[in-house]
Design goal:
alpha/beta; two-stranded antiparallel ribbon; single chain; 470 residues; 9 strands
Amino acid sequence: MSDSDDTKSVTLGRRRLLQGLGAGAAALAFPHLWLPGEARAQTAGFGAVRHLIYIRLSGGFRFTTAFNGDVAEEFNPFGRSSKRAPGTEWGVGELLEGATWLEGEESKARRELGMKTVASFSNEMCVLPCVDHEPFSARADGGHGTGLERFLTGYVGGATGFLTLVNYGLRERVKEAASRGITLLPAFSLGEAGMATGAGDYATYRPPVLEGSGFENFSEDPDSSLPDWARPLPGKVDARFRDKLHTALRGGVETYQQTRKATQDYGKIFRDPLLRVNTDSTDVVDGISNKDLRTLLGTDTTGQRATLALRLFHFGCPAVFLNQGGYDFHSRENAELPGELDAANRLVSGLRTALQKMQHPEGGTYWDKTLVVLGSEFGRTTGGSRFNSANGSDHGPDLATRWMSMPFMGGVITGAGKGGKSLGSVNASNLKATGQVYSYRSVLKTMLDMLGADHQGVFPADAPIQDFFA
């Protein structure tokens, strides 16, 4: 039976326990139990943001070293930050103080633009210390394959990627804009095909997957080389072919036709100089130049993809997914994790600085209208030591693997009074949950909700998280 089969029941013993206690009493008596709430249609923050940047810390991330750091040394051998921002409740790891990109004369431009260490603005981020794939499961899912499937689709064997759900959920918004002659870009996956799966009703809403970091191949308009009389011909041929098919067989052709039409419309946008993020253009758009974005975010692949994400937003793109780093440190984590996380710190700090500077076409700043979320396919464990025998960490069935301590950042978070808050807590010595536990599908559904995407029928057993706005 697939995990996506929502008819799977909870074990008889636990069901009888909850029925006997009642949901409220059970929550008080056993705060480590995850209790599914009423699957309300939306939160108070429905549609509060226009854009989402979803970042995967690739390979399985040791969350307790960064976002749940107030725990025993076996979970966080790098220590806690003494420089966390005032009013921060969540466990800021010392590694979030790392900022080699602010050191030296060559970093003067970044400092002048306003970049800071992540620890210094921890009170602008909200963390969920206990996010689990399956809160009712007897053990964590520490599998690279299955954990990643859950991360990308919500289920093992899930058929529809998260960004496909975003595009599907926003279809009416796109349709309404098109009726006014406005083309809105869809969500984009920058380097991860698993975010772009979908069949049946979802097939035409799969997001583009961009393996590079730009649109240089769209430098010319192919239709411009055709004479006027020839341009309608391909569409007419397609239409005649479609009309000859049985109605049950037309879906594939219709999908192709829609995709080609969208490609033509998108091509006009893709040729815009604003999307040439590999150049140091000083032209100011939305309050910032590409040169400044490259200064903030870097010129490596991840930095250019982050810059591209912000520029795609200018053209109505609702969400971008990208991978950062590689954290599968079964060995040498003690030596290599600080440097890898230093790069992630720059990405987070650069995004914050850019979003707060950028002026949104609808008014206010991009910070006001953008949500930034970090996650991974699972956490990491050592089985009781600071590191394993190879000075690394592993993944298994325990709580250290189970908990994905996910940070959320953006104006919607600070505006709701949740900056610096911890939605949940753990026992420092053993990581047992002492507060709220959230399902990962609830996190996905919450991101859909904040974007204003229709999520009716999506993950029906998992409600969007109300606690961000409580």
